[in-house]
Amino acid sequence: MGPVMPPVVTRFAPSPTGLLHLGSAYSAMVARNRAREAGGRFLLRIEDTDIRRCRREYETAILEDLKWLGLDWDGAVRRQSDHFSDYGRALGRLDALGLVYPCFCSRAEIEREIAASASAPHGPDGPLYPGTCRHLAPAERKRRIAAGREHCVRLDSERSAAVAGPFEFIDERRGRIEGQPLLMGDFVLARKDTPTSYHLSVTVDDHLQGVTLVTRGEDILPSTHVHVLLQRLLGYATPLYAHHGLITDPTGRRLAKRDKDLTIRSLRESGLSPEEVRRRILAAAGGQA
Ligand code: GLU
Question: Which of 37, 52, 113, 262 has the greatest count of CB atoms below 10 A from its CB?
């Protein structure tokens, strides 16, 4: 008997900060098609940990629009805000490994520190956190926490890189990619206003949901480096990745969430059928399936 291949499990993981638009509907189509072609499972996850920006009305609307488009998913929807304890457990494991620290800096303090330093390291989203609170003595950390000072929790990326050792991951289109554990610096694992972060919850959920193939836009490729780093630290398997191109308008301009006319809702209300909208999404994707 040959090796037993695990079944393909994909997911679509929208954040309910607005209506479903052409770009994210394309991501959903890719994930669903990849699962259906392989006789696998297509899961739906609502990434609503950013409680200030996410709204239940948008969640309901996204689910409705996906159904209208014929993009049916398997099993129950996983809503991240119902699972904070899962992220808390993962954070506790990283803490037990000595890889996290509380950070009390305000945004303004971070900006001042960066402006004052001659060569602040940059990541894909701009300057990286300069590491100010990494150097606080344990007693001082305790004192500030006891005093009720607001803080987020960050990963000590250098220590984590040393613990994880060299790693790589596979992107279907790009092949083997060498992991860059320091790409995002000491990124946030739990925010001041919510007990997790995008990077932590996406890593925990892809593991808990048994996702084997992560399909998503190539704008998220830089984040994959730190997701794989977290997988190594937490002892999770690394899925296969397929980062797809972003869809553009006929002039080649990337579609943005703010292009209100490109929501599935507006196309639907203009009288187009689900088939026509699906065709339009694929056309905007330039034939990438
Ligand atoms: N929630 C993310 C977004 O809406 C997607 C993250 C992912 O697919 O890993 O951009």
Answer: 262
Active site residue 257: yes
Q: Tokens 């056309």 identify what position?
A: 283
Residue 191 CB–ligand 1 contact under 6 Å: no
Write down the catalytic residue from 67, 142, 257, 260.
257
207, two tokens: 């593991």
Measured distance CA(182)–CA(178) in Å, rounded: 12
Which runs of E-coded beta strand occur in 75-174? 78-79, 100-103, 122-123, 126-127, 152-155, 168-171
Do residues 174 and 204 make contact, with C-beta atoms less than 8 angstroms apart? no
User: Which backbone phi and psi does 135 adopt, to 5 degrees?
Assistant: -95, 0
Which residues touch 164 (CB under 8 Å, ≥6 apart)? 179, 181, 229, 232, 233
| pLDDT tens digits along 220-242 | 999 999 999 999 999 999 999 99
- 11 CB burial (10 A radius; 0-12, 13-18, 19+): buried
Three-class SS state of 194: coil
> For 13-65, what is each residue's pLDDT tens digit?
999 999 999 999 999 999 999 999 999 999 999 999 998 999 999 999 999 99
- Cβ 202 under 6 angstroms from ligand 1: yes
Q: How far apart are CA 182 and CA 74, in angstroms?
A: 36
Q: How far is CA 144 from CA 12, 104, 130, in A?
A: 40, 8, 20
What residue owns the CA closest to ligand 1's atom 6?
Answer: 13
Distance CA(282)–CA(278), nearest Å, equals 6
